[in-house]
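pls ignore typos typing on phone
iron/sulfur cluster + seq
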Amino acid sequence: MNERDSEQVARMFVEGGYTLTGVEHEADAILVNTCSVRDQAEQKALGKMGMMGKYREKRSHVVYGFMGCMAQSRGEELFDRIPHLDLVVGTQKYHRVYDYVDGILRQRMEGRMDEVGAEMTSLRVEEELTKGRFVDRGAEEGSQNTIRDHVASGTRQASAFVSIMQGCNMRCSFCIVPDTRGKERGRPIHDVVEEVKRLAGQGTREVTLLGQIVNLYGRTEFEKVDGKSPFVQLLEAVHEVDGLERIRFTSPHPIGYRDDLVKAFTYLPKLCSHIHFPMQSGSDRILKAMRRPYKSEKFIAICEKMKAARPDLAITTDIIVGFPTETEADFQLTVDCVKRLQFDNSFIFRYSKRKDTPAAEMEGQLPESVKEERNQELLKIQSEIAIRKNGALIGTRQKVLCEGPSKTNKARLSGRTSQNKIVIFDGDAERMTGEIFEVDIEDSTGFTVYGTALLKEPVQA
Ligand code: SF4
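k done
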């Protein structure tokens, strides 16, 4: 989601005539979009921003800004940590970042341009902005509708993220998101479909619909129609877009994961055979302490219904181990669920305290050694399952959407199956990126599989 928000901000700068650069010391504005899910992510963002202050020694006009969840939750306090910081912009104000940065930059640059006698049109800069140390983290109605544009990369983009909603009305006891992202707010179906049409028109073949609880999309704004939730209505509308071949979404919640969504996988073939479905724990007692309002039986039942609806479905999940008061017996219930459901992959996190969350204040915090031990045990079990499942693909022929050169080896190409397995193969990036090819799978090393693409015409999803 942060990646998508950053892309929206970048697009506004490109439209305003700026150029994006990956070279930090050349940048006139340095913006760090921050995540608050884990303390480590905040520390990393603070460390990075601190280090980049040196660029102002040679280029005094450089503007520094924090955006996103940490900006939202910490506000003014960030100026004490980072003295060279100019701007703190919260999660409902991404669409304002361009005006703020451009205003500060023009004012700083204007002084310099005057010295050399050049002409420069000055934009009106808000009085507060000129004082420096500017903070905007207020709520803004309709802000969810502003994350809708994409950066034209110059090469075909096989797959794109589409933000369909912002915020979350849940109150999981370990999570700070409801404080940083606000209440659930969905974009109108028509707006989302128009965005997907634009992407498909530019050659994008796959979209991933994004929301904190994506399956609860629109529940407070839009009506059910023929017993179908707004999310299923949205899936049906996106499915109609010509040129689009694949639809993914992340992340759904067991709450609101109803039969209409399960059934959609039987009649919407563009829906990929993969869901990322956070379980968090296999113990009902721990789920209750986490304020996750479902029992593990319900979670299991949804997975089983989904596998019946789409037999080749891959399921990945998120799990927290070492949550306060988690006993060995609770942990073993999680292990049992992992073994029973045979996830294709799990993102396993050792519980870490997040400031301002109820779980951080709970009795029964566990020692790091116990968390680490459980983490390693579960990782081992999950790795064995994933390696076995990926190994079983050897000798099969898979449809793979080519995403372009592999990140780890630019000489080869990378793509994904409908089940979201990463496949590495050889071929011509220019011709193959954004197309779906059949690939004969020949090898597997853990989480990546390798194969040979059948270089005929591209196929349908
Ligand atoms: S569902 Fe829970 S974990 Fe997910 S964003 Fe909402 S509060 Fe956080």
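The chain is about 35% helix and 20% strand. The longest strand covers residues 436-445. more later
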